[in-house]
Design goal:
The structure holds two protein chains of two kinds. Chain A is mainly alpha-helical. Chain A has two domains: about 80 residues, Rna Polymerase Sigma Factor, Chain: A; about 70 residues, Winged helix-like DNA-binding domain superfamily/Winged helix DNA-binding domain (Arc Repressor Mutant, subunit A), CATH 1.10.10.10. Chain B is mainly α. Helix content of chain B is about 75%, strand content about 0%. Chain B has four helices and no strands. Chain B is elongated and about 65 Å long. The chains are: A mainly alpha, B mainly alpha. The interface between A and B is large, with 56 and 48 residues.
Chain lengths: ~210, ~80
């Protein structure tokens, strides 16, 4: 059983040159940075907010905030990590506005019982996702990740969907490395558990 | 390696971040513990399914509209905050 292969990322060698040009007022250079990362920011925003309109707002607000604060970006981290940090904060703010009754915090360390190995787990079909159309699969994945606490799905999307390293995710979320690892493990296990309903051998049940 | 120890190392294992010795101990455990093998295998599939799903892709038309709006606001900022 192999390890997970990270997503291939675009070369960043010329990125500092674009950032420098944008700092100097070159809007075309900034537009290139937007082209490079708008899909990622949208994906992250929609994973966190679970709302299409909010995700659109987050894309606009995050890039605008990045543009306004470019001078504060000193280049100790990758531009993308810095941008993700801004986008995550904007997305969490949207979430708080929609759910004022619930504290939404990245520090939220939800207690679960999955510190022990799940028992009597059912194996999955060989290519479980192929049992469903793409639209059905998207609905399953979307519904499943919505059930996770925001702090878990934020870590999951950065590490496993966007392919940030543990260190980069910790920096973007202002969390310690052990905190990122702990949330990632719980997020992965909870998603696995919930997806088993649809993907297990002999009778995945999408009707529940 | 016990099942609880396997779980502690699962994330590092899937990320390819284990030293050779721990990885070998973990794989020995997976060879005889079917339960942990299934947890490991289906967790890996969970990650791959999400990563490869193209869930929440930004449609081209929306992408164009968002970029136009962002760049217009950046230009307005550059021209002076009083114009925003």
């Amino acid at each position: 059983m192999g390890t997970i292969q990270p997503r291939v990322t675009e070369p960043v060698s010329d990125e500092m040159a674009l950032v420098q040009a944008a700092k100097g007022g070159d809007v075309a250079a900034f537009e290139e940075l937007v082209r490079r990362y708008d899909r990622n920011v949208f994906r992250i925003a929609q994973h966190i907010t679970q709302n299409r309109e909010d995700a659109e707002d987050v894309v606009q607000d995050a890039f605008l905030k990045a543009y306004e604060n470019l001078k504060q970006f000193q280049g100790q981290s990758k531009f993308y990590t810095w941008l993700v940090r801004i986008a995550v904060n904007e997305a969490l703010m949207k979430l708080r506005r929609r759910r004022p009754e619930r504290m939404v915090s990245l520090d939220e360390d939800v207690k679960t019982e999955d510190d022990s190995v799940p028992r009597e787990v059912a194996d999955w079909s060989p290519n479980p996702e192929q049992q469903y159309s793409q639209a059905e699969l998207h609905e399953i994945l979307s519904k499943t990740i919505q059930g996770l606490p925001p702090s878990f799905r934020t870590v999951f999307v950065l590490r496993d969907v966007e392919g940030l390293s543990t260190e980069e995710a910790a920096e973007a979320l202002d969390l310690s490395i052990p905190a990122v690892k702990s949330r990632l493990l719980r997020a992965r296990l909870q998603l696995r558990e919930r997806l088993s309903r649809y993907f297990q051998k002999n009778g995945g049940d999408a009707t529940k | 390696m016990k099942c609880s120890e396997f779980l502690q190392e699962l994330t590092n294992y899937l990320d390819g971040a284990l030293d050779d010795r721990t990885r070998s101990e973990l794989e020995d455990h997976l060879a005889w513990c079917h339960n942990c093998y299934v947890v490991c295998d289906t967790t890996k599939k969970t990650i791959e399914i999400y990563r490869d799903s193209q869930l929440y892709e930004l449609p081209d038309d929306l992408r164009g509209r968002l970029r136009t709006a962002i760049i217009a606001k950046c230009k307005a900022k550059r021209a002076g905050p009083e114009k925003v």
